[in-house]
Amino acid sequence: MNLKIGFYSEVLSSEWISSLKEILSQFGSFDYHVIQKNENHSLFQFHILFIDSETELKSDAFYSLVQSQSVGVFLVTRETEAVSPLLVSGKIQGILVHPFRKIEVLSKLSLYQQMVSWNEVSSLNRSFSSLVQKLGANLDLAERMQKVRLKKRFPKVKGFEVHNRYLAGLRAGGDYFDLIESKDQKSFSIVMTDSSSYGLSSTILSIMMKIALKSGLDPKEPLGETLVHIQEELVSTLSEKDELSLFLGVVDRRDLSLKYLNLGQTSAYLAKKELGFKSLGVQGAALRYPVLSQRFEEGCVQLDPEDRLIILSDGFAEGMGAQAEVIKTMNELRNYDPKKSVNELAYQVKSKLEEGAMPNQDCSLLMMDVHSRVLRLAKS
Question: What is the pLDDT of residue 336?
């Protein structure tokens, strides 16, 4: 890794810099620069910046550098110090506790590499949005490129069986869905969005990657707080014609609870063991311009062995028919193997189309079965 690393400290005692250099040297050859208090930070193009927590951080130029998406910024702190507001506000990527542990320093280098990769994906998505606008009539190209962004299948999720299906549609915009495991494996997040433009779809992808970069969604934190962060990111992107439907959920493996927010036209259904499907309902309308920091009361349901959860974008629901027809079909397939059920639901949409035709809009489906022998983790 040929990285340029900066160190910033306003205090006289900065032995942590020498200590950190010594550990970093074990992982590669880096270009180091110690920044002086009144130095013009904009002159330096750093990849990673380590900042002493005792720094006052009042320089506008410094904040500009901290907020740059191309720089990995980490705060050097001590175990006895309180959590910095910089971490809470999202202006830095993480903290590094002094005295340092080699594995923690290595994790910061790995985190930076992940950040670079995800920024590259975000840049590609913006290019994709521009290309689709120029080639609006080329639907085959749009379909192929949209599918590249969505996972064909998810990795194994401990305690659950997950299947999904995506059908590209005619209208501008796009669906996005993902499962994000927490670092401690005690929870995982479920996301499905339906955007009215390709540009907005790319923005959502970038936002969710940022959330994943910061350890995923914390089951202890209200989903409303995460939603506020998403709305803040959307302020500069959402136009008057844009609309975003969003399903955001967190499954806590410690008690098998699912807390969720469902805004807009996405549909979520839960079937308990040997029972039919019931809608989880919605907590609010789709997000629109102007973006306001709205707060919604999250829903919460208990998951049990052999339950089945199905989340549908409005394109999929529209393709199958009225809600009563959707629930009827899902109930008929309730005891089928989940993979077969997903394929049959997709067939229900395709069977209503003329040969070779595409749905009016993107159709996304995510199905999750709770294993019969799933165990709840002990509360910590």
Answer: 92
Q: Long-range contacts: 228-234, Cβ < 8 Å, 24+?
A: 228/293, 228/295, 229/90, 230/204, 231/287, 231/291, 231/292, 231/293, 231/294, 232/293, 233/203, 233/207, 234/203, 234/207, 234/287, 234/291
pLDDT above 70 covers what percent of the chain?
A: 73
Domain ranges of the chain: 4-113, 146-370
By mean pLDDT, which of 32-36, 188-192, 237-241, 267-271 is the weakest? 237-241
Q: Put the strands of the sheet holding 277-279 in their side by side order.
A: 160-167, 363-370, 308-312, 267-271, 277-279
Instruction: Say which CATH topology domain 4-113 has.
Output: Rossmann fold (3.40.50)
**pLDDT band with cut points at 50, 70 and 90 for residue 68:** low
Q: How many CA atoms lie within 13 A of 138 on its CB side?
A: 11
Please report the pLDDT score of residue 41 as a whole number. 55
In this structure, which topology does domain 146-370 adopt according to CATH? Phosphatase 2c; domain 1 (3.60.40)
pLDDT of residue 62: 60
**Angle at which helices 323-332 and 338-350 cross, to 10°:** 140
Check: CB of residue 180 under 8 Å from CB of residue 209.
no
Task: Find the DSSP H helices in the chain.
Answer: 15-24, 60-66, 85-89, 102-134, 139-149, 198-213, 223-234, 314-320, 323-332, 338-350
> What's the average model confidence in pLDDT over 295-322?
91
User: Residue 271 CB: number of other CB atoms within 10 A?
Assistant: 20
